[in-house]
């Protein structure tokens, strides 16, 4: 594209191996992870420093990138680099326990926290959009999406009182960049799934990349395939080309007539942006032209179709299916389209994820700085041995070992909770110290975690005490991680759901095999998920209170 032409063909890839050029592993790890985020295997548009999620960037511009890399190589083990929205702005003398890098991305004062204001300031070169893990240098490619989706469907199975999804049929829409993880996430959980997309090329791409088993343009044939798989208790994913607003209604009629039973219904069409949702009655070929010819008219038609789409979803719920919103704002858009019962079904966080957040469980991830996939294989074994009683976790690690193709530095993700994560961190540190692993391990997480985000349309939707928009929690999380020995800590605004709608924090630690690293790992990886339990205790969740009591988390007003 034109952007690639303007910046040339610069290719960034992290150095591999156990030799460092920086003066500490904290600084070396930050440098390698920044570079890894921009690896062409990892980033969506590396030439523009865009990692993922719209315009989520790793650094403000190439000059800032070069200055960050140079500064990290020169940084003393008792110094800290400050990064303001992707630009290195200062180096200060701190101490060995302090983070090597402190990052603040995309933050704006409340009344100014709008997309137009943000874009104006971005245009002036004063800020950048950091998303969640783009600007905090701990994105690991599509494995993160797949695992989160897998974990959600595993939680759906549990909420249905099942061990897995074998014998169930899921209906969903949207096989795009993120939605395309749904079919594989369902089959990894043992279920059958029908996924609807208007764009045949998306379904073909998912088949090519191993995320979807097969697709067809014939709904009848697709339904025959998935119902047979459901009846046989087999895992199978089938795509069908069609408009979800129509297909969902059609399948609902058959469900009501007793021709088939759909157990689970959700959707990941790009409903958050009405111009990216194809209304019924607009031909696929005319989509772009129609949307740009009359954006307002198109928006009204898209919302009208979303109203039908969501009405069918509510119909499935009324007919006994498990139905949830998968974070694409389709309920709000359908309501704007005139369907009043749009919020009859819940969002995925309150429905399935919050009970996990109450235990401090969230997306723990790690990366082998050696670049050796064998190091990840060994850590997979170690984590399975540590948590062998957790069947879902063991199943995920086995399946990920087979199904996940590494992008950039080899990495792994799995959900662990309070009083669990530090055990993995300490084990990895021992394995580095003993030479069993061929280089240090970087340990981080998504900002979508138990104690690190305030986001009223997603992670903190419908909190029990109404505290959805309280953003003190992620700030306390970042401060505590800084005080506990993290290698880098970040505070962002707007990730996931857009400017004005979230505040969130990230932390990364490094297992370099030293005793000091062990002390830091133990504190950070205990305290960080501990803030998730604390936040949910404060909001009144009983499970969080139990966890705090059982696992010894000190909350001064626990019994108040
Ligand atoms: P995308 O734009 O890559 O894909 C969207 C897909 O929807 C496209 O393939 C498009 O052809 C299809 N589509 C549009 N209108 C349709 C219609 N009427 N019927 C059938 N298919 C239609 O987007 P993505 O990255 O896959 O994300 C999808 C949505 O899910 C977004 O709204 C995103 O914000 C949301 N999302 C939420 C979470 C979360 O909350 N955890 C995670 C991932 C994605």
From TrEMBL:
It is an enzyme of class 4 (lyase). The active site is at 414. InterPro entries: Urocanase, Urocanase-like, Urocanase_C, Urocanase_central_sf, Urocanase_CS, Urocanase_N, Urocanase_Rossmann-like, Urocanase_sf. NAD(+) binds at residues 53-54, 131, 177-179, 197, 202, 243-244, 268-272, 277-278, 326, 496. It catalyses: 4-imidazolone-5-propanoate = trans-urocanate + H2O. PROSITE patterns: UROCANASE (PS01233). Residues 1-9 have a biased composition (Low complexity). Residues 12-138 form the Urocanase N-terminal domain. Its EC number is 4.2.1.49. Residues 355-549 form the Urocanase C-terminal domain. It is found in: Cytoplasm. Catalyzes the conversion of urocanate to 4-imidazolone-5-propionate. This is Urocanate hydratase. It comes from Microbacterium arthrosphaerae. The gene is hutU.
